Fold this sequence. Notes:
By secondary structure, chain A is of the alpha+beta class. Chain A has 11 helices and 6 strands. Chain A has helices at residues 56-61, 77-89, 108-113, 137-148, 161-190, 196-219, 232-242, 255-265, 268-273, 282-287, 289-312; strands at residues 24-27, 35-36, 69-73, 93-97, 121-125, 131-135. Chain B has a 4-stranded mixed beta sheet with strand order 2-1-3-4, covered by helices on one side. Chain A: It holds the Pfam family GST_C. Chain A: This is Glutathione S-transferase GstA.
Amino acid sequence: MSGVRVGSRGLFNARCLRRRTASSFVSSSPSLPPIYLNSIFCSRTPSTSSYSLYSTATAAATTMSRPDITLYTAQTPNGIKISIALEELGLPYKVEKIDITKNTQKEPWFLEINPNGRIPALTDTFTDGSKIRLFESGSILTYLAEQYDKDHKISYPQGTREYYEQNSWLYFQNAGVGPMQGQANHFYRYAPERIEYGVNRYINETRRLYSVLDAHLAKSKSGYLVGDHISIADISHWGWVAAAGWAGVDIEEFPNLKAWEERMAAREGVEKGRHVPSPHTIKEVLKDKAKAEKIAQESKGWIQQGMKADAKH
Amino acid sequence: MTKPITVWLTPPGPNPWKVITILEELQVPYVIHSFKFDDVKKPPFIDINPNGRVPAIVDPNTNLLLWESGAIIQYLEEVYDTDNKLTYDSLNEKHLLNQYLHFQMSGQGPYFGQCGWFNALHSEKLPSAIDRYVKEDHRLLGVLNTVLEDKTWLVGDKCTFADLAFLPWNTRLDMALLTPPGEDPLAPYPNVQAWQKRMESRASWKKVLEVRSKLMDEQGLQPNGIPKGIKTFQEYEEHIASANEAKK
């Protein structure tokens, strides 16, 4: 996987072109920056593929290319979990940017991949040569760890104490921090009317969850949530904690969590992965209150449109 | 011989019952440490789960303490479901099971929970908040109904832990949506309704209901979670409202 060959539109089979304005990009080996493509991606089976992420030599030598990962994502805390994990692992992957402002994630072709109509989703060629489609960020992280993290760079071996503890924190994020901070975002930034009770309920629950993380990190010897190195439990939290201010939570209240967030941000994999599929700007945005409010106002429109569309089903 | 696993729980909420259902299905010995919901954020439980949420388990066989119901289910499956009664060891199926478990944990659980809060439990009625969560519940049910089209179970051809993870919250939907007595909130979703009935008819769930109602009774609660002496959800709401008023 020493190089990258980027396909042009001409290499794709015309029958699987999708009528969307999508900008795909190909990420690569750790030594190369992501390459943005103004092309349209289509799913391929390995046997008919004339397009490879690998160097020509590698592609020629491999009949079934694996990994053959396509990440369907947008610039959100859940989306960047996956690109950060992929970068930490140094895996090649294609990116399909999903325009959630246009409700692309509810289009039939995407619902085929994730019936829940949410990003991120991921497809890969499975060990049996057939395609696997995955959704739910926590489940995708587990998949990547089990399939591709043989050296346990971002996970722990199955059956170890650290493995099970990593799962506790992973679920804590997916069932706790994510949903609750998401509701705080809704009531603090997007709701059609200002409901103080709703704002306070979710900001306070997010603060409570952060205080659990903060107290736990205070005791951590490695500076990470589980064991002696980074794991998918940390990766799962980072985008949300980096966006604390968007939910009305002041990270200064949680010094250990703040230090952890900065420790994570200093990692090469996090730095690369966070800018997928478009630049991660939330930290800069939050420094400028007026800009943050302007973006929230703009987002309100498409978010409430999406909610209305959901309610029709 | 397997030593019994201790399960820490407060009886009214749905999440501990996922774990008990799995333990019953796998016939793993367990003891329940039942305590009051008022004490979840206090010692000794807060020392077991720093998040102050049930369930948590302590397994003396492996000397492991674990919390988050999804993580506990995966642990029990890995260690105690060696015959693959509720799981698959083929990789595709394994990850699809994981996917649906995460969908339950980050979708169905939190949203049914918030809906129940704003619709039934919170004293102040906030129409736009209620509307948000009722709609999301219906959306999630719609997704499940689509996924279950022409299918008996979520993954493969047998009931798995991923199916059973949805069972306890489904039984609380009437409260979350304030469904009139005698009506089935799942009726508009026939595939989900049939799936739920298949799960409820299992011996494990019958046992769960038995254990649960006994533990609820110990704490002066009726099987539906409402304190004894209060007949309907409406009456319960009034009771909560007056209790909140008294606190002020």
